[in-house]
Design a protein that fits this description.
Elements lengths: L2 H21 L2 H4 L3 H7 L1 H6 L8 H9 L6 E4 L5 E4 L6
Antiparallel strand pairs: 1-2
Length: 88
């Protein structure tokens, strides 16, 4: 898998996990990476592609997510951007 494809997969995982975590209030219950990782385990099991990224890395990004409609872009070294993620 190319670096560009890995970055896109990481972005997709973070953005989908953010949606799940906000919908289930996992972000409100979890205050650190280990507890949020546990909160995301069910999401991981239901998501076909997410096993390819480290769940701890995804959880760390989610804990820093600003309020409002945002999306992650740029792979593991990326950052939060305003607005919804681009749809393929």
């Amino acid at each position: 898998m190319s670096d560009g494809a890995r970055d896109e997969l990481f972005d997709l995982a973070v953005n989908r996990a953010l949606s799940y975590a906000r919908r289930t209030r996992a972000l409100q219950r979890a205050g650190d990476v280990p507890s949020l990782t546990r909160e995301l385990e069910l999401w991981l099991l239901r998501t076909r592609f997410a096993y390819r990224v480290r769940l701890e890395e995804v959880a760390a990004r989610l804990l820093d997510a600003p309020a409002g409609e945002v999306h992650w872009s740029g792979g593991p070294g990326g950052g939060w951007r305003d607005g919804p993620p681009a749809r393929p």
